[in-house]
Design a protein that fits this description.
Elements lengths: L1 H8 L3 E5 L1 E8 L7 E4 L2 E4 L5 H4 L20 H6 L8 H4 L11 E2 L6 H12 L4 E5 L8 E7 L2 E7 L5 E5 L14 E2 L3 E2 L6 E2 L5 E3 L18 E7 L2 E5 L14 H7 L5 E11 L3 H6 L7 H4 L7 E12 L2 E8 L13 H11 L21 H17 L8 H5 L1 E6 L3 E4 L5 E10 L2 E11 L12 E3 L10 H4 L2 H22 L3 E2 L7 H14 L4
Protein name: (2Fe-2S)-binding protein
GO molecular function: 2 iron, 2 sulfur cluster binding; iron ion binding; oxidoreductase activity
InterPro entries: Rieske_2Fe-2S (IPR017941), Rieske_2Fe-2S_sf (IPR036922), Ring_hydroxy_dOase_asu_C_dom (IPR015879), Rng_hydr_dOase-A (IPR001663)
């Protein structure tokens, strides 16, 4: 049912909506589905009746989705009159993906998982390693995904090359650990390959008359590097990575991603489907119940949800103002700041007596904490952030690159997540902290990967991840129970929100497009 519903959505004549990289379809016999209001384009009638007809009464020319009470995120940005708001934050592209339910079996069915492996993970760009981790000739990283294993190696000319990590003699995994290599030597029988993958030596070459050594190279895997992030793809015919991500590079240029390094990298096995883990970080309103300590200073209602392309979604969450659901309505700004400092944030140090808030006239929690963040970043990096707007410093700005990689914007440390599926009920979840390097002096060495034991809480790596470590323990508390519940539903359905879970809907839409060979 779900596949047919999405198939109805993505069939027919294709039309661009709001951005040339975003394509939505309309039945070829229908009238134009959009109306223009200034420079914006909004849906006027259903793109696919089965998907959208139940939500048409909620559309509004000023905002095409149901909207929570209070300010919109763009109206909140307008209040920052001292700083220029960057184009990255002014970008808006809400896309209506309807209210169709999602079948629970997509999260636990072995058959569906096999389709995802074959049609999604082996045909999409997968983040593997950061270039900083391979600075010297011969430096090699072993990237494992499902039943695939890849060598990524720095070449003599400074380029990177990805190759299958399999001995072509008896199929043994050629390299089990990364490091600086002069050649790749199989521990089983001693056959060797050069770091560019060409065949080097066979100790009993006389007994392999069938092998033409010039044709016995390790098979190459496609590789593209984007702002230091190295992606690989097992599909030789895949669309180039850069052609799939739209204006994402422009956004990240603003937030100095090229000047960043990987400060920490921690992983943990989660007993849940990879989509359960990914979807835990694709909307902001879970903060209200999962992270209640943040309710005094995170306004979940004022989030904004956009599609940048079919392959990239984004949500933003306003920080420094309370949720409308907060029971303590008369909390002072000073108390709110104390709570925010006590809980920690990406832009501020933990609360101490010396950091007691001293608010100037007309100053708010948001403006006060943003200014603190600017000063802290300048102290840490030697860079000038005086022109950065409050949102640049405080807000959660999360991008999801299909299918399983997340990267945050803004100037403080950028959070990255990678979800590597293991089986329908098991995922390797990795969290990385990407930090702006100091303006002067050597670039810091990348953080070393640390793998947590299954019974080891995230709070044990608070030195590496800061306040986020305790939040991840709260997030973990949802994941296996979600998987258990989805399996209990069997072939039942779950219901996503119309607007604030746009990214989740798009994830499933894109999975079906890949499975149905429509990409």
């Amino acid at each position: 049912m779900m596949a047919r519903a999405w198939s109805a959505f993505i069939s027919g004549e294709r039309r661009a909506l709001s951005h040339p990289q975003i394509e939505l379809s309309q039945p070829s016999h229908s009238a134009s589905p959009v109306i223009e209001v200034g420079k914006k384009i909004y849906l006027k009638r259903p793109v696919a009746v089965r998907i959208l007809e139940s939500s048409m009464n909620q559309l509004d020319p000023s905002h095409p989705f149901a909207r929570a009470p209070g300010r919109s995120y763009q109206e909140l940005l307008d209040e920052d009159t001292r700083h220029k708001i960057p184009d990255a934050l002014r970008f808006q592209n809400p896309v209506d993906l309807g209210v169709e339910p999602v079948r629970a079996e997509r999260y636990h069915s072995p058959d569906f998982f096999r389709k995802e492996v074959d049609k999604v993970f082996l045909k999409t760009w997968q983040y593997a390693v950061h270039e900083d981790e391979l600075p010297n000739v011969g430096d090699t990283y072993v990237f494992d995904l499902l039943h695939k294993t890849v060598l990524i190696t720095r070449q003599e000319d400074g380029s990177l090359k990805a190759m299958q990590n399999v001995c072509l003699h008896r199929g043994r995994k050629l390299v089990t650990h990364g490091g600086c290599k002069r050649q790749f030597r199989c521990p089983f029988h001693g056959m060797e390959w050069n770091i560019d993958g060409t065949f080097k030596w066979n100790p009993i070459g006389w007994d392999f008359p069938q092998i033409a050594e010039k044709e016995f190279s390790l098979p190459e895997v496609r590789l593209e590097s984007w702002m230091g992030f190295v992606f690989i793809n097992f599909d030789p015919n895949a669309t180039p990575f850069a052609d799939l991500v739209g204006v994402l590079p422009d956004h990240m240029e603003h937030w100095k991603l090229r000047d960043c390094y990987k400060g920490a990298h921690v992983g943990k096995i989660v007993r849940a489907n990879w989509k359960v883990v990914a979807e835990a970080f694709m909307e902001g309103y879970h903060v209200y119940a999962t992270h209640p300590q943040a309710n005094p200073f995170i306004a979940v209602e004022q989030g904004q949800y956009d599609l940048i392309t079919d392959h990239v979604s984004r949500f933003t969450t306003a920080v420094g103002i309370p949720t409308e659901l907060l029971e303590e309505k008369d909390m002072s700004e000073e108390r709110r700041i104390e709570l925010m400092l006590g809980a920690g944030s990406r832009a501020n140090k933990p609360f101490t007596k010396e950091s007691q808030p001293q608010l100037a006239a007309e100053e708010t929690t948001r403006t006060h904490m943003a200014e603190r963040g600017r000063r802290m970043l300048q102290e840490q990096t030697g860079r000038d952030f005086s022109e950065a707007c409050d949102a640049d410093i405080l807000d959660g700005i999360s991008y999801h690159i299909f299918p399983n990689f997340h990267i945050w914007g803004a100037f403080p440390q950028k959070i990255c997540y990678r979800m590597r599926p293991i089986d329908p009920d098991t995922t390797l979840w990795e969290a990385m902290m990407i930090r702006i390097a100091p303006k002067d002096g050597p670039r810091p060495a990348p953080g070393v990967f640390r793998m947590l034991k299954e019974d080891e809480p995230w709070s044990t790596v608070i030195d590496e991840l800061g306040y986020l470590a305790t939040l991840y323990d709260q997030d973990m508390g949802n994941m296996q129970p979600c998987q258990d519940g989805l399996k209990a539903l069997g072939d039942g359905v779950v219901q996503f929100a119309h607007y604030s879970e746009t990214a989740l809907r798009n994830l499933h839409r894109m999975i079906d497009k890949y499975i149905n060979d429509e990409i």
